[in-house]
Structures are given as structure tokens and as C-alpha cells.
Write a structure and sequence with these properties.
With 334 residues, the chain is of the alpha+beta class. It is built from eight helices and 13 strands.
């Protein structure tokens, strides 16, 4: 789901920042907040908010955040804790990662970044996540440890929450960024409560970047948003059919709404039992076709890897929905 390598003058600045941070009492979480405050960024816009950070990445200065954060923030502004602005230039989106990087033109100080998570960290090492919890405009210090390391991800138990997306995951002993807080998986455990797992994408595992054209990026984000909403409405519709045998809610998806309106019009015109069964079959067939059409069309036009991976998830959900309609159409009629 975005060249950026033009700002050679930040080489000296990145070196200076690395030296400064190396003196910043590694292992002291509270001290990290003080030393890194000019590298933490609030991402705010007309349609959303999130977190980001400035990092010394491959000897250049970039603002890192999640691709999903930028997909949800239109007309974004980037500000430090003292509300001073960060000016950014060209953007690139990472392939295989929910990560987006913007060249920093002015403002802020760069945090140091590990060159190899595998070589410089171990499971059990302490980490700190510094972020904008729930978009409240307040930096939280969330401590925990590394509980898993994968090819592209690190799993931590630092209790970050929605709104922390885009925050740096910092290896406490070295004071270096190892990843970007991205998502949580919550599993309900019945009476025992729930189990939460938290993941961040590694910065050292990114191998390929896509230049970001913002018009196209936001167009694809909107396309995925509509598909996700339609998937949710199909789920609600199947729940309605299962409980009530009919649609009892209002649906805004054009594909669902047009099929239901055609069905209602046929019923208003009056049909017998045999004709009624044919009308019901036409409704199910129309909904089955609609459940696959928008995903199929999107596959032909989506270009950013981040959105392609989101579309794969939606496609799997729609395949399950299609199977339900297939089973309903195979049932013998009375």
C-alpha cells in the first residue's frame, strides 16, 4: 500500500545525532523520552491522526510512519512535541511492510537505527515504545520486552494501543530503533479474558521501496475502504438472513442495495410461490456475483504492495461469502 535519496547534507547531521544519542544513558527509559523528544512526531490531518518518528536510516534523515496511518490521514501535518513543524519531501512505501518513509527537509532530530535486529538484539531484551496513544497528543512511555523475532516483524509485550501506530520500538540497551509499532491481535479466551499480541515491522528487513504518488495512493486507499465496508455489510446481510430470513437493516453498498431493491420491487408487483422462489434465486445469484465483482476489478488496478496485501485479505473473506451463496443456491426448492 510511495527520489528520496537526494539530501546529502544530512550525512553530517545524522552522524552528530548518532553521537548525541549514544551518550544518552542507554537503559534509562525516562531519559530516552527527554533525549528523543525532538525525534517524535505527531501526524495529524482532516481525517485522522497517528504517530511517527524521525530516524537516521542508511545515513539519511527520514520521517517514518505506517502506510495505514498515512492512508487514513488526509492533508497531513507533521509536528514535534513543541508543535514546531517538520517539513517533508518525497515519500516511498516499503514492499512487504506496513511502512512509509518521507524525506525530512527541515525540523527535528534523527533517532539512531539498528543495522541488524538479528545481530544486535535478542528475545527477552527490554524495549520501549514512545508514541501518541489513542491520538491524544501525549507521548506515552510503554515498556516491555522482545518476545519474538521474525523475518519482517518483531513481537513485543510493551502495551501499545491504537493511536500508537507509527511509533518507534526502541531497544533499551542500545537506545536504537528496531521497528515501528503496527498492529495488535486480540484473541478472546472465554472466562479467562483475552490474549493480546503486539507486532512491529523491522526497519532493517526492508529491501524494496515504491515511490508514492499521493493522488494514486489515496485513490487506492479509498478503493480499499469501500471494499472493506462492503465486506462488512455482506457479513451483516448473511447474519440477517440467518436470523430473520430477510434483510432487516439498511445497507449502503451499491451492489447490495440494488439487488435488494430489485427483489423488493418484484415482491411489490405480486408473485406466486413458484415465481417467488425464482425471484429469491435471482436475488441470491445477484448478491453472489456482486460479492466478487469489486474485488476482481480492484485486482486489475491496485498498484501499491500495501494495498495489494490488504486486498488479498478481503478476497479471502469474499470467497467465504461466495461459498455461502453457492450453498444457498444449491438447496432444493419446495
Amino acid at each position: 500500500m510511495r527520489s528520496v535519496f537526494l539530501y546529502l547534507w544530512v550525512l553530517w547531521l545524522g552522524f552528530f545525532a548518532s553521537v548525541h544519542f549514544a551518550l544518552a544513558a542507554p537503559g534509562d527509559a525516562a531519559q530516552l523520552v527527554k533525549d528523543y523528544r525532538n525525534g517524535l512526531v505527531f501526524v495529524e490531518g482532516k481525517t485522522g491522526q497517528g504517530s511517527g518518528f524521525i530516524v537516521d536510516y542508511k545515513a539519511q534523515k527520514y520521517l517514518f510512519t505506517n502506510a495505514h496511518v498515512m492512508a487514513g490521514v488526509r492533508v497531513p501535518q507533521f509536528k514535534l512535541l513543541d508543535l514546531s513543524p517538520v517539513r517533508v519531501g518525497n515519500a516511498v512505501a516499503a514492499v512487504g511492510h506496513d511502512v512509509l518513509a518521507l524525506a525530512v527537509l527541515s525540523g527535528g532530530s534523527a533517532l539512531p537505527c539498528v543495522e541488524s535486529v538479528d545481530k544486535e538484539t535478542s528475545i527477552g531484551d527490554e524495549v520501549v515504545v514512545l508514541g501518541n496513544a489513542e491520538g491524544a497528543g501525549v507521548v506515552n512511555l510503554l515498556q516491555g520486552s522482545i518476545v519474538g523475532i521474525g523475518p519482517n516483524l518483531v513481537e513485543v509485550n510493551a502495551p501499545f494501543v491504537p493511536g500508537n501506530s507509527g511509533s518507534p520500538i526502541i531497544h533499551l540497551r542500545s537506545g536504537k530503533v528496531i521497528g515501528i509499532a503496527t498492529y495488535m491481535i486480540v484473541r478472546r479466551m472465554g472466562p479467562q479474558g483475552e490474549k493480546v499480541r503486539r507486532f512491529g515491522y523491522r526497519l532493517d528487513s526492508i529491501q524494496q521501496w515504491q515511490p508514492v504518488d499521493w493522488t494514486r495512493f489515496y485513490a487506492e486507499a479509498d478503493m480499499l475502504g469501500k471494499i472493506e465496508k462492503t465486506t462488512a455489510e455482506f457479513g451483516a446481510l448473511l447474519e440477517d438472513f440467518g436470523k430473520n430470513g430477510k434483510a432487516t437493516r439498511s445497507y449502503t453498498s451499491p451492489a447490495i442495495r440494488s439487488a435488494l431493491e430489485a427483489f423488493s420491487a418484484s415482491l411489490r408487483n405480486g408473485v406466486g410461490r413458484a415465481d417467488g422462489e425464482q425471484v429469491a434465486e435471482r436475488l441470491l445469484s445477484s448478491l453472489r456475483t456482486a460479492s466478487a465483482r469489486d474485488v476482481r476489478d480492484a485486482k486489475a488496478s491496485i498498484g501499491y504492495d500495501f494495498f495489494k496485501r490488504q486486498l488479498e485479505t478481503e478476497s479471502r473473506d469474499r470467497e467465504e461469502i461466495t461459498k455461502v451463496f453457492d450453498q444457498a443456491l444449491k438447496k432444493p426448492r419446495r
